[in-house]
Amino acid sequence: MHSGSEGAPARKRSDARRNAATLLDAAAAAFVESGVDVPVRSIAARAGVGVGTIYRHFPTRADLIVAVYRHQVEACAEAGPSLLASSDSAYAALGRWVDLFVDFLVTKHGLAAALQSDDAAFESLHAYFIERLVPVCDELLRAAVAAAEIRADVDAYQLLRGVGNLCVGAENDPRYDARRLVELLLAGLRRS
Known about the structure:
Blueprint (H helix, E strand, L loop, with lengths): L13 H21 L5 H8 L3 H7 L3 H26 L3 H21 L1 H4 L9 H22 L9 H12 L10 H10 L5
Helix pairs in contact: 1-2, 1-4, 4-5, 4-7, 5-7, 5-8, 5-9, 7-8, 8-9
């Protein structure tokens, strides 16, 4: 007789999920600081785990890069509703969320060379990014429009593309302040 749970994937324990999140945060920070070719031992030291732990979770560097990217997309996506619930205004929530998105883009651009490789592991990441973040941005925009704080002719995909384009190359030019230009873009959404 079967228990009904055979063949179903086991859910990770909460401590295992926390450990994986700590490891992914450490890897993301190491990627930003030193690039995706940073030695695994440096990531392990930063995360406070052994090298074997990283390889047990992520057998290849591509697996680790994909996991970091997805982890950061999820963190950005999950922040939208909580910012909307805790901010003084929908426009303020939108601004804080776009600021998180800019932080994400800086890391993503640090991963750009890996993401543009021919590795099949990276093929679905752009679609995943769009699928998870456009709806969150759309929810924030709709709330700000409903509150009469911003103009109504703003499309979430276009806004994310615009912010992304303003962030291109920001990490390589200390004179270029992408965050300031993104602030100006958001200010341009305000209703006069």
